[in-house]
Amino acid sequence: MRLLRYIAGRLVVYALVVVFGLTVLFFVPRLGPTDPIEAMLAKVASQGAYMDASQVDALRQSLADTFGLSGSLLEQYWAFIKRILLTGDFGPSLSMYPTPVMELIMNALPWTFGLLLTSTLIAWVLGNFVGLLSGWKPESSSSRVMEGVAICLYPIPYYILALVLSILFSYIWQIFPLTTTIRGAPWSWNLVTSILWNSFLPGASIVIVVFGWWVISVKAQTTALKEEEFVRYARLKGLGDGRILARYVLPNAILPQITFLALQIGLMFNGSLITEILFDYPGLGLLIYTAVLQGDFNLLMGTISLSVIAVATATMVIDLIYPLIDPRIRHR
Amino acid sequence: MIKVDNVTVGYGTTAFVKAVDRVNLTINDNEILGIAGESGSGKSTLMRAIYGDFSTGLRIASGTITGRFARNGTGAVTEAESHDFGQLWWDQISYIPQGSMSVLNPLMKVEKQVVDGLPKRERQGNRAELRRRIATFLEGFGLEESVLDAFPHQLSGGMRQRVLVAIAAFVNPRLILADEPTTALDVVVQKKILLMMVEIQRRQRNSLVLVSHDLGVHYQITDRLVVMYQGKIVEAGPTAGIFANPQHEYTQTLIASLPRIDGTRAEARR
Amino acid sequence: MRILKLFENAPFRLYLGLFLVALFVLVGAILPWFAPADPLVWYTTPRNQDPSWTYPLGTTSLGQDVFWLLTWALRNSLILGLLVAFFSTLIGVFLGLAAGYAGGWLDRVLSFLMDALLCIPSLPILILMAALFGGQLALPIVGVALVLFNWPYPARQVRAVALTMREREFVNVAWFSGESSVRILVRHIFPYIAGWSAANFINTVLVGISTESALAVIGLSSAQQATLGTMIYWAINYQALLAERYVWVGAPVLAIVLMFIGLFLVSSGLSMRSAARRMSV
Ligand SMILES: Nc1ncnc2c1ncn2[C@@H]1O[C@H](COP(=O)(O)OP(=O)(O)O)[C@@H](O)[C@H]1O
Ligand SMILES: [Mg+2]
Questions:
Q1: Which of A93, B143, C76, C185 has its CA 20 to 30 A from that of B210?
Q2: Would residue A309 count as lying in a domain?
Q3: CA geometry: angle at A256 spanning A254 and A261, to 5°?
Q4: Last residue of some domain: A57, A87, A117?
Q5: Which CATH number does the domain housing residue B62 bear?
Q6: Ligand 1 touching residue B17 (CB < 6 A)
Q7: Is residue B42 lining ligand 1, measured as CB closer than 6 Å?
């Protein structure tokens, strides 16, 4: 029952957070000194598209709809929220007219999630392994070297690392492709290798930084846990190092990191956006960038709203998973 | 079974801090030996040296601790110094640590923690059988089978301490070292656990060393008593004898300061 | 190996970090005054010079001195980071204390606000703002937005500390002995929070500079001001990579990396320290 109440509570907070985020999005265009619609029309005009007055008016009306600028403020707000939450409809893309924005987003999301999830997972496994070992034997020189490396890697922003990697491995040694071009028939082996090949550098930039973080935090956890009585007790039971690490230290070291991960998702998402842009990786980040460059405001509003919803959802999922993993919360 | 021969134990490698000073002691087969003494008198240090736990800078400066263990079934005899007792842990020797709050892994069910580290001989049969045997064993401690599926935080302090005693006893070793197993528990629970320990010892006919600063505890269950003071053994002998006629000044003040010796001696009811 | 061993104890970490940060702060605070010409202005130097005595880091293809450009960029990035951190910490500590100490509905509202802001990704919102407000954001606007997104980090931590503090013995003693709330806050609670807040402050400097740079690298931050991020953007945009002028890109990149390592060392050193202090109480 407690668990159910926890889940229900968390879901309510999640709904509130999403509405709050969308509210922020609703007000941002209204804060600026310039009228976004006129700015946008100017942008479209400056790109050389010729439109006669009636076309301009039609566009102005459709933009007003997108931003929910018709009616009183309250009506506008209600229409805006309803439109996003109930219908998930962001209208057609202006730069890739008439493809619906939602379709573009749905094509891009798997790339972003695939890249983020895979690299985070790889980094997590590697980081736990190295962090655990170097926390267990902090005196050994290899663990000192590892910690030094991690300390130098972790503070580097993803996009800086992405830049460095692309300078090193795409410009100086031309090993990996500079920009992403995925080739191959659907479901073919070629396609798979092409995806892996093109995802290597963007993935590596995320893996390396996240790896640095996990090494640092798991090592700190392990060093603290080693002094815990239950670890001492396990040792006095005559259990081997491997077993103690796997069954006593590791689970207890991982748990507190999960809540931290929930806090970190937003920042990780920020980083991956820029990484995608730098590598032309066809995910949400690139889509946002395209929208900005093309002045495609439907697409912009759609991608940004979805980013907010996606990050809030990921945070909630982690929060919901946590009590399932931690028995101290599951069975109270 | 264990012979402690003129042993000095302390901490630190560069600056050696003495905690146990030239102690001689024998632990016999089939007995409950009590070790008494105020906090800081070196009881835990001595226990750790006997158990062979040389972590956190613990070191034997001089003297030897030797053990002789006869296996239950085969009668094969193992002789070793306490430095090499590691191979006998949770087989011939087990240990009940001081304080129960954080000794159990918070993320592991009790059943798993009983089984983890159990020697092969006690593991016979499939998992269901083993579980049944553990459940029956715990029943003797007044613990229901559901405790097996509980996580430590779901148990009360007294229950956790009983679980710790049960984990050590289920190993069915030749020697159990218990370091303040009942400190910080209320008197009723304490007494229950003590009686259980006596019962198990009488059944397994092994040796139990019980450390406690509380003389009342020793009065209730130990056969023989050793009193430590500032790292030295100041008095040793049959428990009844010491209580009737304490020789050392320190023991006399200890006994005199007991408000009232409550409970009958378990030995009397044997 | 000896050097690495020193990472173990907080002070060394702290000192190494402080050294790095101080170096950058000095470079960013003092050197810009000595720039021979405004490094933002094109063609004040010959174009595409390799590093030499006159041009320590060479010049850009637009005839700007990379070294002086870097000092200006450093100054602006630092000012932005410090101001963002200052106001975030100020607001965060204040609201965190209010939430943790007052409890009740105020706590609930503030906690929700913190949680909500923490799971809204700041960069997309900044991108949206940039796109809406004419393609580029002026630094003060970036700064205000960053403060809005970053105060919840210190606030959460301070709230947690304030909550445990409320239960602490000595606070109760002070309470019962009739000390006023304000006095209790100042005398007993602030000293505890100070360490964590300092660590948080440094961390926010890092996040602030990093987020602005992210925005700048894709060309959405101010084009009127040099920051570390815009410097990278200009370099990439004016084909420094294709022309193999790696020092031009490399200088701001290396500056960011070293400064961030320094900032991280300081903040983790500080929190290690206050963790140790808290345990010894
Ligand atoms: N890990 C340790 N390192 C250094 N000194 C210790 C350590 N453990 C105990 N001591 C010291 O050894 C002496 C004996 O302690 P201990 O054996 O724990 O006594 P008791 O169990 O009788 O209370 C004390 O002076 C104590 O400070
Ligand atoms: Mg002790």
A1: B143
A2: yes
A3: 85
A4: A87
A5: 3.40.50.300
A6: yes
A7: yes
- Does the C-beta of B137 come closer than 6 Å to ligand 1? no
Q: What are phi and psi of B35, to 5 degrees?
A: -120, 120
Question: Which range has the top average pLDDT, A90-99, B233-242, C9-18, C119-128?
Answer: B233-242
Q: Does A328 touch chain B (CB under 8 A)?
A: yes
Cβ separation of A28 and C232 shorter than 8 Å?
A: no
**Residue range B246-250: mean pLDDT, rounded:** 88
With touching defined as 3 or more inter-chain CB pairs under 8 Å, the answer for chains A and C is: yes
The distance of A214 to chain B (nearest Cα, Å) reads 21
Provide the domain count of chain A.
2
In this structure, what DSSP letter does residue B146 have?
G
* Same domain? A150 vs A243: yes
User: Does residue A94 belong to any structural domain of this protein?
Assistant: no
Closest residue by Cα to atom 1, ligand 1, is B56
CA-nearest of B172, B175, B205, B214 to B27 is B175
In a domain, B265, yes or no: no
Q: What is the span of the domain harbouring residue A116?
A: 104-327
pLDDT digits (tens, 9 = 90+) for A103-147: 999 999 999 989 988 998 899 899 989 999 988 888 888 888 888
Residues A78 and A155 in one domain: no
Site to probe by mutation for ligand 1, drawn from B8, B17, B212 as the one with most ligand atoms within 8 Å of Cβ, is: B17
- pLDDT number for residue B263: 52
Give the residue ranges of DSSP H helices in A167-279: 189-226, 229-236, 241-244, 250-279
Question: How do residues C58-70 score in pLDDT, each as one tens digit?
Answer: 777 777 878 888 8
Residues A166 and A71 in one domain: no
Average pLDDT score over residue span C41-46: 74
- Range name among A48-57, A245-254, B17-26 with the lowest pLDDT average: A48-57
d(CA A220, CA A235): 20
Mode of pairing for the β-strands spanning B77-81 and B58-70: antiparallel
Q: Ligand 1, from B45, B211, B232: best to mutate by most atoms within 8 Å of Cβ?
A: B45
Q: Which chain A residues contact residue C112 at CB under 8 A?
A: 13, 16
The helix or strand, by DSSP H or E, that contains position C217, with its residue range, turns out to be helix C190-217
Say yes or no: A83 and A110 in one domain.
Answer: no
Rg (CA), chain B: 18
pLDDT for residue A16 is more than 50: yes
> In this complex, do B89 and A328 lie within 8 Å of one another by their Cβ atoms?
no
**Residues C220-263: tens digit of each pLDDT:** 888 788 888 889 898 888 877 777 788 888 889 999 999 999 99
Beta bridge partners of B10: B18, B59
Ligand 1 centre to CA of B98 (Å) is 13
Please indicate, yes or no, whether residues A58 and A197 belong to a single structural domain of this protein: no
Say yes or no to pLDDT of C1 above 50: no
